[in-house]
Write a structure and sequence with these properties.
By secondary structure, the protein is α/β, with parallel strands linked by helices. It has one domain: Vaccinia Virus protein VP39 (Rossmann fold), CATH 3.40.50. About 30% of the residues lie in helices and about 20% in strands. The protein is built from nine helices and eight strands. An eight-stranded mixed β-sheet has the order 3-2-1-4-5-8-6-7, sandwiched between helices. The radius of gyration is 18 Å and the shape is globular. About 0% of the residues have low confidence.
């Protein structure tokens, strides 16, 4: 696994390990990231750091985690002090898993489509999903209605400039409908919200060192030494949220970001 940002869909041979009694494990298909899968840990930590950043901003608010998937992000928001968190997802297996695994007084899960959810809220979170939808403008317009005047919407998406292979127009992820450049993502958000603050997610700590090592030819070295599997079996599970950094910037400044995070207000 020398290229940690390779977005090719993983084979369906991995599933979550060590789930609580009575909680069915989910299989890794490439449609969503999962905790408790060591081979997926880079992507899980890359998502988790954004949830933790958001959690610090939504204390006391009614929050909807739209397209919540496995439910770990909804749990992060709920345990950080949100007044109420509703995790919304249409997938029956993900919904059942989330409902059984994450149980808090201020957390519940609803199985429905993002286009049909109707409950108003103070803040709405939509992470790493807008690239999956056919009509992103209609989705953002609906989110603005749900939060109302003064409400907060936070949307993230991968940066096609760093996600796709060099020279390619898009990654090989079959679940993605459209992958955004920074100016495109900013324009989409600005068409529906008066205030758009853009952030970029970047490698930090050991991931930044690893990226530098790759540029210097580390791929060839570990292959010659025959330690590729042993190295990445140790390295990938050790990645955590502190190995990423979220920094503000204009669209023009975010060409090198891994992901974009847009903080939106009407």
């Amino acid at each position: 696994m020398p290229d940690l940002a390779d977005d090719a869909p993983p084979p369906q041979l991995f599933e979550q390990r060590d789930q609580p009694p009575g909680v069915p494990p989910l299989a890794l298909t490439g449609e969503r990231t999962l905790p408790d899968v060591p081979e997926e840990n880079y992507w899980f930590a890359r998502h988790l750091v954004v949830y933790e950043w958001i959690a610090a901003q939504v204390g006391g608010l009614r929050v909807v985690d739209m397209a919540c998937g496995e439910g770990y992000g909804s749990d992060v928001l709920a345990r950080a002090g949100a007044a109420e968190v509703v995790g919304v997802d249409a997938n029956p297996e993900a919904h059942e898993h989330a409902r059984l695994r994450y149980v808090r007084d201020n957390l519940r899960f609803v199985r429905t489509m993002i286009q049909t959810y109707r409950e108003p809220c103070d803040a709405l979170v939509f992470l790493q999903t807008i690239e999956h939808v056919q009509d992103p403008g209609a989705v953002l317009a609906r989110f603005r209605e749900l939060v109302g005047p003064g409400g907060l919407v936070i949307v993230s998406t991968p940066n096609v400039l760093t996600l796709a292979p060099p020279g390619a127009e898009r990654s090989g992820n079959p679940w993605h409908v459209y992958e955004y450049r920074p100016e495109e993502f900013h324009a989409l958000c600005r068409a529906h919200f008066g205030s758009v603050q853009m952030y970029g997610l970047h490698h930090a700590r050991k991931l930044a060192i690893h990226a530098g090592a790759l540029r210097l030819g580390w791929d060839a070295v570990h292959a010659r030494l025959g330690v590729t599997k042993r190295f990445y079996d140790w390295f990938v599970p050790a990645i955590g949220p502190r190995d990423f950094a979220l920094r503000p910037g204009t669209a023009a400044q975010l060409h090198g970001a891994l992901d974009f995070v847009a903080v939106l207000r009407a």
